[in-house]
């Protein structure tokens, strides 16, 4: 395993500089490249770990491979909820979170920000996009990630809980570190401000769910198709990204969330 990791680490070193956010991809271009990459490398959906069937770079989740069942199989009008049958590309750090400090967002939201070059870099960043079942992407919206005090499974066996009242989403433990390292990448690449409670939780998740070979392989493939490398995947020893004093206890029973 150590030798296997070193091979990928050496490959990483030879590809591109860290945090060089200078290759602007539109959101549509990013989705096309990522769909081709996901098809080629047999990626599964991020939250539910479903196999994906591809046709002309359009993906459909395979519920039998992961136990997913829709929370809302039909729409209010009684039609089939098409988002339950398609794979979409979700921003792990939502557009609202990485753009709310931009003047264009305050003036006109996503529509106006499409004219902002910094927003376009962030929206099309390949490292911040993951394949997700459309229904979960819609339900997640721009909700915070966090740990809920009571868990209710609304998507079959898919380990994905959501509180619409608290506007918090709890992902499965095995991808929490992935999420944290994407947040650290976005913070450092685009100078996105994260508050202390966010950093607390992200640091916890980073430690609890260490980097996997699959994460490294995926990042190397992302680099090959024009993305940046995420240096947080290549540390021999985890660093602490927080102040020494901690406002939250890891054993706290209260709901923790990140913004």
Describe the structure in your own words.
This protein is an alpha+beta fold and 259 residues long. It has 9 helices and 8 strands. The protein has a 4-stranded mixed beta sheet with strand order 6-7-5-8, with helices on one face. Helix 1 (2-13) packs parallel to helix 9 (213-224) and helix 7 packs across helix 8. Mean pLDDT is 85; it is low at 1-5, 15-22 and 237-259.
Give the SSE map:
Blueprint: H1 2-13, H2 27-41, E1 51-55, E2 58-62, E3 87-91, H3 95-99, H4 103-113, H5 117-123, E4 129-133, H6 134-140, E5 144-147, E6 161-163, E7 168-170, H7 176-190, H8 196-208, H9 213-224, E8 256-257
Parallel strand pairs: 5-7
Antiparallel strand pairs: 1-2, 3-4, 5-8, 6-7
Helix pairs in contact: 1-9, 7-8
Count every beta strand, where a strand is a DSSP E run of 2 or more residues. Answer: 8
Helix content: 25-40%
In order across it, which strands form the biggest sheet? 6-7-5-8
The portion of residues forming beta strands comes to 5-15%
| Uncertain ranges | 1-5, 15-22, 237-259
Coarse shape:
globular
Gyration radius (Cα, Å) is 18 Å
Helix/sheet category: alpha+beta
Helix-strand topology string = HHEEEHHHEHEEEHHHE
